[in-house]
Design goal:
The protein is mainly beta and 208 residues long. Helix content is 12%, strand content 46%. The chain has 2 helices and 13 strands; from the N terminus they run βββββββββαββββα. Strands 3, 4, 5, 6, 7, 8, 9, 10, 11, 12 and 13 form an 11-stranded antiparallel beta sheet that branches. Strands 1-2 form a two-stranded antiparallel sheet. The two termini are 18 Å apart. 37% of the residues are buried.
Amino acid sequence: MKLASKLILSGVAMTLAFTGPTASAVVVYDFDVLVTGAMPQGTSPWATLTIQNSGADTVNMTLTHNAGSAQGQFISKLLLNIDPFATGLSIIPGSPKIVGWGYGVDQFTDASGKFDMYVNFQVSNQNGGADRLKPGESVSWQVTGNGLDENHFVALSQGNLNVFGLLHIQGIPPDGGSGKVAPVPEPGTLTAIAVGLAALASRRLKRK
């Protein structure tokens, strides 16, 4: 299981507490911690990902490039984790801004972390970059898989970087640089994390 009882992100430590018997049906990640590269300009969080259960075996995802992000910046890639990894995975894109995707257990290495899923977004500057994911814009897509729900995405990457996700931001002023940022979960999402920790602790006790 990829959860941890204490998360340390860029020097920010969060100790998790169990706050209820069931997990939220919505997971929200705010991307506001620089992992590597140039610091994005504007107001953080630069982006927000919402993952919501949408019936049997289906979740809806919406990635918003928040309006407080600096003009000229655009999102080029999102990486996520899936635990337990679901079989029969499929992604249904809902926007031409989404140009590629893939999934596999620890198959995608980035910034020393190993991730289970990626979604690529348009980087072309054609027509003034009209199809890029720019500040103030959102894209949505569905992910389906056997038994899949929003809590499958409350998991940490493996390797030397342990984060809930990773986002690439390009076109960072003043020189058009790029940076990679990770999320700190919103309070409601911490409940889902705590539920996973409680389940893990229960299983360990039963083994003794």
